[in-house]
Amino acid sequence: TEDRITLGLPSNTTFYHKTGTFDKALHDAAIIIHPKKPFVLAVFTNGVKDGRTTIAQVTRDAWAYVDSKGQ
Question: Is the whole-model pTM more than 0.90?
Fold first, then answer.
């Protein structure tokens, strides 16, 4: 499923992820190869209006945080 963490990353980013869905809960966990420092991100949603959008936004926020830090 490429509609969660994938949507929050720059298009040329290498990453490895696993999604999950259970009732109204959506999840995605990934190893993300950021040029400054690779990181792991896991986002679990339950009962939010749009889990895909929430996961993508958390991903963008995490990327921006890592991007703002030095090596």
Answer: yes
